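agent> fetching stored inputs for the NG6 docking request
agent> found them:
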Amino acid sequence: MKRLSLVFLILVAGGAAVCAAESRPNILLIYADDLGYGDVGCYGAKAVRTPNVDRLAKQGLRFTSAYSSSATCTPSRFSLLTGGYAFRQKGTGILPGDAALIIPPDCVTLPKIMKAAGYTTGAVGKWHLGLGKVNEEVDWNSDIKPGPREVGFDYSFIMAATGDRVPCVFLENQRVVGLDPGDPIQVSYEKPFPGEPTGVSERDVLKLNWSHGHNQAVINGVGRIGYMKGGASARWKDEDLADTFTRKGVEFIERNRDRPFFLYFATHDIHVPRLPHARFVGQTAMGPRGDVIVQFDWAAGQLLEVLERLQLSRDTLVILTSDNGPVVDDGYQDGAVARLGDHRPAGPFRGGKYSIFEGGTRVPMIVRWPGRVKPGVSDALISQVDFAASLAALTGRELRPGEARDSRNVLPALLGESSAGRQHIVEQARGLAVRQGDWKYIEPSPGPKRSKTTHIELGNDPAPQLYDLARDPGERRNLIGENPARAEALAELLSRVRDGGTY
Ligand code: NG6
Ligand code: CA
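agent> prediction call returned; pasting tokens
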């Protein structure tokens, strides 16, 4: 009898453990920077090999209509982490490296949702959401807060902004790593520090010359945005960024192997400056832009490998996606334009980073959860703003009204159980667009049609635009003349979403 009940107990306990693992898988979010829809093999790239990303796609679900919420980094990340469209909050455009934290500390966020569900949360890599209090200058030599911890990350190892913005140092939790107190860091986005080299004074000897902007501080032989002085022992080497972030990501997984974890792994690749580690140099015929795609693929592969080594693959939901579309010349003379060849970074789509055309926000997205998500391809409409509500649903956390307000629970679509995602999504660049079904309406927007520096077609037009993405994914035929009623209905929908009531 005793024995029987023991067996019974073991069975029940075992069953509970299985249930827990099923509803609380680890979550690994691999978030690339500026990786375009056409930049990886499984989305059609031929000029660069991405075996790890491709394998992930083969084992998982590959989305064809997944979107970042914006065509640049800061607003996309803001949306992903808060579940709210960035256009609702002023000051969520591309931030300087000394900006204050733009996510209010009392805001419910994706990592906070995960924490409430019992997860240990970590952010490794690019931050670019500001640090410190509004109207207070950041002191880079003491504890820096609020930051990732106040947003909901138990652990963080980050760069403050972007690879091309100062300060070029890592922060682990609240502190700059490797700082010598005798050589304090000073940062200014206003004026140069007298006597410090700049991208103008040193232009002849730079390791990587700039094409536009990027001519202020010189760090590691590369011109940056913003001025910086001091902190010599803490400065990163661009060639080691991928290795360092990958090691920190792997260590986070190793440390948390025995409990549910959520890791937001946001790479610097494939953003500028593109300075791959020596072992990736020359891996493609496309020059540094191709080589850093290989480096990104390697980093993704390392994280997948640690899951495999620790036998966590089946208990881990992996999402791989990008913060915005691709750009070829983003301000450095790295040969990307000349060596592009036939490669189409945005795949079949028009425009790229910064653009309201599909190239700005239609991004690669792969979801893998072995044993749970059936491998395949999904056309479901999904925005990264939906991760908050969907992962809340996965882990059983109920959202209260007003929390993650633009986020929709598209979990069935994410897991491949349904082909229906969102009803509609808003895309953001300089102006806004809305996609509903296959139709896309772009509101009139002032501003240049094509960027003079990146040469990207931005899609701005003083006249409204309407496209049928099913027949015309490249957004070539503006159908507004033939379909004024449809355009009007979409314009109305967009203003309902923008006005922010229930929609
Ligand atoms: C632009 C930078 C570009 C990049 C971008 C932000 C110049 C001339 N261009 O202002 O290089 O840093 O900001 O990219 O400075 S993002 O992916 O982080 O949004
Ligand atoms: Ca980006």
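agent> quick read of the result: Residues 33-34, 73, 271, 323-324 surround calcium ion (ligand 2) (CB under 6 Å).
agent> awaiting further instructions
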